[in-house]
Write a structure and sequence with these properties.
Layout lengths: L1 H8 L8 H74 L15 E5 L7 E5 L25 H12 L6 H13 L5 E6 L3 E9 L4 E7 L4 E3 L3 E8 L4 E5 L10 E4 L36
Parallel strand pairs: 3-9
Antiparallel strand pairs: 1-2, 3-4, 4-5, 5-6, 7-8, 7-9
């Protein structure tokens, strides 16, 4: 019986039947396939992790580059502002023409013949200089300073009047800026950073003149309540702790009392007075007729 069974099964050299050998091969193939899948999955996870780390490094590098650019821009602004102050101080000491500077001449003691007690000094007329009649060009031209036109155009296009809804107003505002001869522009805000108007900053008299939008025609430094600076990298306006109008300022807000309420004003001439109102006497009132 044992010999019959042994001859029928025909065991393999390892002592396994053909059925067991097939199961073993199948198991080995499944295990190998699973190992390959696990290896592929781990490689994919490692690739994703590597890409995430690479993107994070690129993001950090761009952030550092943007911070460096903002820092360089701030240094350039401060340098331009300092140069402008130096040139303004030098302009106050430069004469308006090529005429030479003349020291005041000697004074003569003059007596009044009508009053012996009173005497006064009068200056002797100075001799005319050879350059007094010169009508040539002026030596000094006042610098215009660094312009923030591109910064304001960027702020209006991408922040203040962005979107298709504001396309008409944005085109008009950009056209007003392009047609203006100013060098430094400021944006008027209300209720936070809500856009209202664009102004040109006159550095000579520290006044702002409106070229587009809704707001006072002229704004002085006494009307200013807050100042803002535009961050071109973050595309946002940041409030700065300053009250002085300078070329480093890109936006401002005025006091609430400077805004017109828009209430109609009734003239006193239209209101009736006591002279216009006639109260009839009781004798003038006629009795009713039935």
């Amino acid at each position: 019986m044992a010999m019959f069974i042994g001859d029928d099964t025909n065991p393999s050299p390892q002592g396994l039947t053909p059925e067991q050998e097939r199961k073993r091969e199948k198991f080995m193939k499944l295990r190998q396939k699973k190992q390959e899948e696990d290896k592929t999955r781990k490689e994919a996870e490692l690739e994703k992790k590597r890409r995430r780390e690479e993107k994070q490094r690129e993001k950090e590098m761009l952030h550092r580059m943007e911070e460096e650019r903002i820092r360089q821009e701030e240094l350039e602004r401060q340098k331009a502002e300092q140069e402008l102050r130096i040139r303004d101080a030098q302009a106050a000491r430069v004469p308006d023409s090529y005429s030479t500077y003349r020291r005041p001449g000697p004074r003569q003691h003059v007596y009044d013949i009508n009053d012996d007690a009173n005497s006064y000094f009068v200056p002797v007329p100075a001799q005319p200089s050879g350059f007094a009649d010169f009508s040539g060009p002026q030596c000094y031209v006042k610098p215009s300073g660094k312009s923030n036109r591109k910064i304001i155009v960027n702020a209006v296009s991408h922040v203040c009047l962005s979107g298709t809804v504001n396309q008409d107003q944005k085109d008009k505002c950009l056209q007003a800026i392009s047609e203006s001869d100013g060098h430094h522009f400021m944006i008027l805000f209300k209720d936070g950073v809500k856009f209202r108007a664009v102004y040109v900053h006159n550095l000579d008299n520290e006044q702002l003149f409106k070229i587009f939008g809704i707001g006072p025609r002229v704004v002085t430094s006494k009307m200013v309540e807050g100042l803002y600076k535009y961050n071109s990298g973050g595309k946002e306006f940041t409030k700065i702790p300053s009250k002085t109008l300078s070329i480093s300022v890109d936006g401002f807000a005025i006091q609430k009392s400077c805004w017109h309420t828009g209430k109609p004003v009734v003239s006193s001439r239209l209101l009736p007075t006591s002279r216009d109102l006639h109260v009839p006497h009781r004798d003038e009132i006629s009795p009713p007729t039935f």
